[in-house]
């Protein structure tokens, strides 16, 4: 089982703003979500959460220095202008690819600090780009456990490592009711 470290809001450290090298750590299928206001689409869209491990920024957890992570939500859409397609290009993958091929790939992230309504700030991925082969080779390997979480075929042991916030986010999917994920969460007492 993967150990999950939870920090209070006061303890949270922001990933440094600017350009950061990172590796793709995790991909979480968030299920169907309403199309956002920027989209011309009316139909729900399949949503992904991509988690990056940032090699330059560290956080001390239980006396251990660990790389920080940052995530970005995007639709499961590979059209030419999509964020997922930009990620594919940055990772150096061909047009025909599978999500598992993204895991561990080094990329360059542009990080911005954005305000929340309460005045606190959060780190956000503002841009994704590729790295030269020389720089990519110098990005340290992943430290945390990598995985892909499949909404339609959920892994119970993996789900037990998710925070309450992450479980609530999955439950907010438009296709949660009647899904295999709902059945698993309701049947397994080890899941929040």
Structure description:
This protein is an alpha+beta fold and 192 residues long. It folds into two domains: 135 residues; 40 residues, no CATH class. It has five helices and six strands; from the N terminus they run βββαββαβααα. Strands 1, 2, 3, 4, 5 and 6 form a six-stranded mixed β-sheet that branches. β2 and β3 form a beta hairpin. The two termini are 15 Å apart. 22% of the residues are buried. The N terminus is likely disordered.
Highlighted features:
single chain, 192 residues, alpha+beta, 2 domains, 6-stranded mixed beta sheet, globular, disordered N terminus
Which runs of at least 5 residues are low in confidence (pLDDT < 50)?
Answer: 1-10
Mean pLDDT over the full residue set: 90
Instruction: Give the % helix.
Output: 10-25%
Question: Could you say which overall geometry the principal axes of the C-alpha atoms support?
Answer: globular
Q: How would you describe the oligomerization state of the chains in this entry?
A: single chain
How would you sum up the major sheet? 6 strands, mixed
> How do the SSEs run, as a string of H and E?
EEEHEEHEHHH
> Structural class from helices and strands?
alpha+beta
Content of β-strand: 25-35%
Number of domains: 2
| Integer-rounded radius of gyration | 17 Å
Give the end-to-end Cα distance, rounded to a whole number of Å: 15 Å
Q: How many DSSP-defined strands?
A: 6
In DSSP terms (H or I, runs of 4 or more residues), the helix count works out at 5
């Amino acid at each position: 089982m993967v150990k999950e470290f939870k920090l209070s809001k006061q303890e949270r450290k922001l990933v440094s703003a600017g350009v950061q090298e990172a590796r793709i750590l995790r991909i979480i299928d968030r299920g169907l979500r309403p199309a956002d206001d920027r989209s011309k689409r009316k139909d729900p869209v399949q949503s992904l959460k991509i988690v990056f491990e940032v090699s330059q920024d560290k956080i001390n957890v239980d006396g251990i220095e660990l790389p920080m992570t940052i995530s970005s939500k995007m639709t499961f859409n590979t059209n030419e202008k999509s964020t997922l397609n930009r990620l594919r290009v940055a990772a150096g993958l061909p047009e025909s690819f599978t999500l598992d091929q993204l895991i561990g790939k080094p990329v360059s992230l542009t990080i911005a600090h954005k305000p929340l309504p309460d005045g606190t700030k959060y780190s956000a991925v503002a841009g994704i780009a590729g790295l030269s082969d020389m720089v990519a080779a110098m990005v340290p390997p992943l430290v945390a456990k990598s995985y892909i979480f499949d909404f339609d075929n959920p892994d119970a042991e993996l789900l037990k490592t998710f925070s309450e916030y992450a479980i609530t986010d999955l439950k907010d999917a438009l296709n949660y009711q009647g899904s295999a994920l709902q059945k698993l969460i309701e049947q397994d007492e080890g899941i929040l």
